[in-house]
Amino acid sequence: MAALSSSVTSRSYRSGYSASFSPVKGNRHRSLSFLSASSPRGLDIHDLCVRFQSKSARASVFMQDGAIVTDSNPTENKSSLKGLKDEVLSVLSQDVAKVGAESDGQNKSTVSITVVGASGDLAKKKIFPALFALYYEGCLPEHFTIFGYSRSKMTDAELRNMVSRTLTCRIDKRANCGEKMEEFLKRCFYHSGQYDSQEHFTELDKKLKEHEGGRISNRLFYLSIPPNIFVDAVKCASTSASSVNGWTRVIVEKPFGRDSETSAALTKSLKQYLEEDQIFRIDHYLGKELVENLSVLRFSNLIFEPLWSRQYIRNVQFIFSEDFGTEGRGGYFDNYGIIRDIMQNHLLQILALFAMETPVSLDGEDIRNEKVKVLRSMRPIRVEDVVIGQYKSHTKGGVTYPAYTDDKTVPKGSLTPTFAAAALFIDNARWEGVPFLMKAGKALHTRSAEIRVQFRHVPGNLYNRNTVSNLDQATNELVIRVQPDEAIYLRINNKVPGLGMRLDRSNLNLLYSDRYSKEIPDAYERLLLDAIEGERRLFIRSDELDAAWSVFTPLIKEIEEKKRIPEYYPYGSRGPVGAHYLAAKHKVQWGDVSLDQ
Ligand SMILES: NC(=O)C1=CN([C@@H]2O[C@H](COP(=O)(O)OP(=O)(O)OC[C@H]3O[C@@H](n4cnc5c(N)ncnc54)[C@H](OP(=O)(O)O)[C@@H]3O)[C@@H](O)[C@H]2O)C=CC1
Ligand SMILES: O=C1O[C@H](COP(=O)(O)O)[C@@H](O)[C@H](O)[C@H]1O
C-alpha cells in the first residue's frame, strides 16, 4: 500500500476538511479529500467521510469513532481500506498538530481590515455587521484592527456610533451581546481621506502600523466604493498602505466592468498594482448557504449525480425576484440594468456551480477550473431568447407604487430593464440541448431566489391516467430555495391514501428552519472569513469573469444599441407575460408559477 503524504492548505476546519492527500509512492490513490469534519477550529479525526479516487474506482469511506463503518465501493478491498484508514489517521494527527502550531504563531501576527467607503450603504448594511458576527463567533484572529476609510469627516467615536446602529446579535446568544459589541467597537477606528491620495493612504498606513504594534501585519482592504474609483483606491492602497511583511489582499465589489472590454480593462488596471491572488472579486451569492451546499448535494449524494445531465434533466431554472424596486439605488442601477446586476454574476455563478463537472478536489483552483470550462462551453445568448421588462406604477389597496422612471435619480424615458428572462445553452456532452432558463426582476410580487430542476417525463408511465392532467405538473422537480426560508425539496408523485388509485404531487422537504436550529450566517460573513483565511474558492477568478462576460456582452450590446423597448409590467406583479412565451418556446413552464409550487 502506498504511503500517503498530505498537501495541507492553510484552510481552516470550519466548513469541512479540504486538505488533499496524495501517495508518496505509486499511484494507487490519486487524491483524498475530507468531505465533512465536525467542530469549528478543531478536527474530530474519528468521525469523517473520506472520499478517495484510485485509477480504477472512486470510493467513500465513512468512519465513526475511528472505525470504518461503511465504504461505498465494493471493488476496493477492505484490508487495503483498513491500512488506508490508519495512514489517514496518522497524517491527520500531524496536521492537527500543525494547526496548533499555526495558531500559536497567530500571536505574532495581526490582521488589519480597512473598509474603503465606510460611510456607504453596503458598509453599514453588510460589512460591519458581518465583521461583528465573525468577532462574536470567535472567528477573527486574536489580534485584529478594523479601519473605516472614506472622505466623510468622522471621528473614531462617530464611526463607532454609526456602526453600532447596524449591529445585531445572534438570536441564540444574546446574553453577552452588549459586552461583545463594546469590545468589538473598541477595535474599530476611522481615517478620513480621498480615494486617490497617496498622502492620505500613507497616513492610514502610519495608523495601521501603530495598531499592529510590530507584529507581522496582514492587511485586507474591502473596496466598498463605486466602481469608477476602484483603480485609484487600489493604486494608493497597494503603493502606500501595503503590508511589508505579511499578505495584502483586496476585496473588490461588483460591478466588474459593464461588458467584456471594460471588464478586461479593469482587470488589467488592477493587475498593475496587485497579483491575481491578491484580488478577491466578491459575488455575495456564492456565500449563501444553499449555493455553497450545491456541490455537497451533488457530489456527496449518490442519488443526484447520476441524474445530473441531459439524459434525465429536461430544463433548469434560476429565478431571482425582489418585491421592491430600485428605491435609493436608481442612479447606480440605471447604468447597469438587471442583466448586469443579477444575471451576469449571481445567476450565472450559480449556473456554473450547478453544471460543472466533478472537480479534482475541493481546492479553490480545481473548482474554478471546472466553472470556467462550463462558462466557456456556453453559447452567447441570442436576442430572440430574451425578454426584457421595466416596472410601471401600480395602485393596489389604495397605495400607489412608483414606476421605475419615477425615481428621481433615473433619467426620464430610461429603457433600462428591471426584469429579464433568458434561455441559455451549454454546448457540452453533459448538457447539450437542455435549456437553462434565467429570470430576474425587481418590483415583483415576492422576494425569492431559487433553482428549479425539472426532470424528464417517465417513459411509458403506467400511471399516466392517474396523475393530474398536465404532464408537466406530474414530473419530478428538485427545488433548491436559496432564500427566504431556505429549503431543498423534491416533488414526487405519490399515491393518495385510500382504496382508489389517485396520484398527487407531494414534497420530500428539507426545510432548514425545521432541521437546523442554528441561524444561517450572512453571505458576507462567510466571504470575509474566507478572504482573511486566503480561501479563494468562492471568489471569481479573472478568466471566469472573462468567460461570464462573453456569454452576455453581445446580447447587452444589441439591446442597448438597438434601444430595445422593455415590456412594461405593473409594480408588484409577476412580470411581463413575454417570459411565459419564451419558456413555452423552449417547451418549459416556469416552476414558480404553478399553483402548487
Ligand atoms: N449597496 C448594496 O446593496 C450593494 C452594493 N454593491 C457594490 O458595493 C459598492 C459600494 O456600494 P454602496 O455602499 O451602495 O455605495 P455608495 O454609493 O453608498 O458609496 C460608498 C461610499 O463611496 C463614496 N462615494 C460615493 N460616490 C462617490 C463618488 N462619486 N466619488 C467618490 N466617492 C464616492 C461615499 O463615501 P464618502 O463620500 O464618505 O467618501 C460613499 O459613502 C459598489 O461598488 C456597489 O456596486 C454590491 C452589492 C450590493
Ligand atoms: O448584488 C445585488 O444583490 C441585491 C440582492 O441581494 P440579496 O442578498 O438581498 O438577495 C440586489 O438587491 C442588488 O440590486 C444587487 O446589486
Automatic annotation (TrEMBL):
Low complexity: bias regions: 1-18
Sequence ranges assigned to domain Glucose-6-phosphate dehydrogenase NAD-binding in this UniProt record: 115-293
EC numbers: 1.1.1.49
SUPFAM superfamilies associated with the record: Glyceraldehyde-3-phosphate dehydrogenase-like, C-terminal domain, NAD(P)-binding Rossmann-fold domains
Known catalytic reactions: D-glucose 6-phosphate + NADP(+) = 6-phospho-D-glucono-1,5-lactone + NADPH + H(+)
InterPro entries (alphabetical): G6P_DH, G6P_DH_AS, G6P_DH_C, G6P_DH_NAD-bd, NAD(P)-bd_dom_sf
Domain of life of the source: Eukaryota
Boundaries of every Glucose-6-phosphate dehydrogenase C-terminal domain copy: 296-590
EC class name: oxidoreductase
Region (Disordered) residue spans: 1-26
Pathway per the UniProt entry: Carbohydrate degradation; pentose phosphate pathway; D-ribulose 5-phosphate from D-glucose 6-phosphate (oxidative stage): step 1/3
A Pfam family hit: G6PD_C
Assigned keywords, A-Z: Carbohydrate metabolism, Glucose metabolism, NADP, Oxidoreductase
UniProt signal peptide: none
PANTHER family with a match to the protein in the record: GLUCOSE-6-PHOSPHATE 1-DEHYDROGENASE 2, CHLOROPLASTIC, GLUCOSE-6-PHOSPHATE 1-DEHYDROGENASE G6PD
Stated family: Belongs to the glucose-6-phosphate dehydrogenase family.
Job of this protein: Catalyzes the rate-limiting step of the oxidative pentose-phosphate pathway, which represents a route for the dissimilation of carbohydrates besides glycolysis. The main function of this enzyme is to provide reducing power (NADPH) and pentose phosphates for fatty acid and nucleic acid synthesis which are involved in membrane synthesis and cell division.
Protein's UniProt name: Glucose-6-phosphate 1-dehydrogenase
UniProt organism field: Camelina sativa (False flax)
GN (gene name): LOC104769526
